Amino acid sequence: FTAMNEPQCFYNESIAFFYNRSGKYLATEWNTVSKLVMGLGITVCIFIMLANLLVMVAIYVNRRFHFPIYYLMANLAAADFFAGLAYFYLMFNTGPNTRRLTVSTWLLRQGLIDTSLTASVANLLAIAIERHITVFRMQLHTRMSNRRVVVVIVVIWTMA
């Protein structure tokens, strides 16, 4: 609030402005530990993306995996691939690079992470519920239709 009790907007400020006002430490230059963490983080992100891409391709190519549970697993792999992508983006916008972020890019960074992790957890929940129902009814495969799985997947991504 200003002196006249009018709300003030800080959307034109960089994230460094907000860090300085909150008293949090914001690195000004790269140190050895930060470089090591970034290098390891990028390596892990690439591995996560490649592994989940392989899962999605395997489910798409192999006709034995064309069942609703595997569609949910492919969607989990897609959410985890998206998480790897979000963290890859985070790796390049962390440390001293955080100073240059605008409010919009900081919100994008946080939104990507929140969306991917929410979708991943929601997929795990959907798979657990589907497996519980299938085991509880003593079936080998679920009675869930492909249409219902598509609806579940759309709901998961809409909620995320």
UniProtKB/TrEMBL annotation:
It is a multi-pass membrane protein. Residues 51-160 form the G-protein coupled receptors family 1 profile domain. The chain crosses the membrane at residues 36-62, 69-90, 110-129. It is found in: Cell membrane; Cell surface; Endosome. The keyword Transmembrane applies. Pfam families: 7tm_1. The keyword Transmembrane helix applies. Keywords: Cell membrane, Disulfide bond, Endosome, G-protein coupled receptor, Glycoprotein, Membrane, Receptor, Transducer, Transmembrane, Transmembrane helix. Interacts with RALA and GRK2. Interacts with GNAQ and GNA13. Interacts with CD14; the interaction is enhanced by exposure to bacterial lipopolysaccharide (LPS). This is Lysophosphatidic acid receptor 1.
